[in-house]
Automatic annotation (TrEMBL):
Location of the ABC transporter domain: 5-235
Stated name of the protein: DevA family ABC transporter ATP-binding protein
The species this protein was found in: Pelatocladus maniniholoensis HA4357-MV3
GO molecular function annotation: ATP binding; ATP hydrolysis activity; transmembrane transporter activity
Family recorded in the similarity comment: Belongs to the ABC transporter superfamily.
Regions annotated as coiled coil: none
A Pfam family assignment: ABC_tran
Protein origin, superkingdom: Bacteria
NCBIfam families given in the database record: heterocyst_DevA
GO cellular component: membrane protein complex
Length: 236
């Protein structure tokens, strides 16, 4: 089976000249369709940098990084933009437009896809908000929603266009235990229904059992890649 994300001998650097610093070292990783992969490790270990490269948010520098059969190493802006349309993003700070309603926030994601513009976007946005349990909050402005509700809107926005890959960066960091658990179980359920791949960066040991695999990073190196039977004591 062809991986949806394939990384070989990937190195990455920040800065130039004397200030150039290597932040990722010889990363090798394959992720397959439908997998839920959790990436954990200490702060500063390179997790978010690797996530942004996988998401086409910056161009890879050395080695090979293939996303949905598109090589990202040396990719130009047009190629990066094309691949971003195939990916859903969920961030720690949810990044909602507070002056828009929940439905308008989700609809904005659909408007990026030309092939969907002839469909009823409001109906699509409302339907997925109902799926995430916010059917009664469709017309609420984002600023009036709780933290957990905002993150549910962010999940709806990420999944409404049926992306092949969802990248989540610390999606439970600002949530209490129950809200955090509810959010990741919701992501898991919707992803399984849609057959999409999830890669989630987290420090939250309470949700590690959601993953099919746990990847542990440290000091820019991928240290281990285990199935989810790994005990949380090994990856905390």
């Amino acid at each position: 089976m062809q991986p949806v994300i394939s990384i070989q001998n990937l190195n990455h650097y920040f800065g130039k000249g004397n200030l150039r610093k290597q932040v990722l070292f010889d990363i090798n990783l394959d992720i397959y369709a439908g997998e839920i992969v959790i990436m954990t490790g200490p702060s500063g270990s390179g997790k978010t940098t690797l996530l942004t490269l996988m998401g086409g948010l910056r161009s890879a520098q050395e080695g090979s990084l293939s996303i949905l059969n598109q090589e990202m190493c040396g990719a130009n802006k047009k190629q990066l933009t094309q691949i971003r349309r195939e990916i859903g993003y969920i961030f720690q700070a949810h990044n909602l437009m507070t002056f828009l309603t929940a439905k308008q926030n989700v609809r904005m994601s659909l408007e990026l896809h030309e092939e969907m513009l002839d469909q009823d976007l409001n109906t699509k946005a409302t339907a997925i908000l109902e799926q995430v349990g916010l059917g009664n909050r469709v017309d609420y402005y984002a600023e009036s929603l709780s933290g957990g509700q905002k993150q549910r809107v962010a999940i709806a926005r990420a999944l409404v266009s049926h992306p092949k890959i969802v990248l989540a960066d610390e999606p439970t960091a600002a949530l209490d235990k129950k809200s955090g658990r509810d959010v990741v179980e919701l992501m898991q359920k919707l992803a399984k229904e849609q057959g999409c791949t999830i890669l989630m960066v987290t420090h939250d040991n309470r949700i590690l059992d959601i993953g099919d695999r746990i990847i542990y990073m440290e000091d820019g190196y991928l240290k281990s890649d285990d199935v989810s039977t790994t005990s949380s004591s090994q990856v905390s």
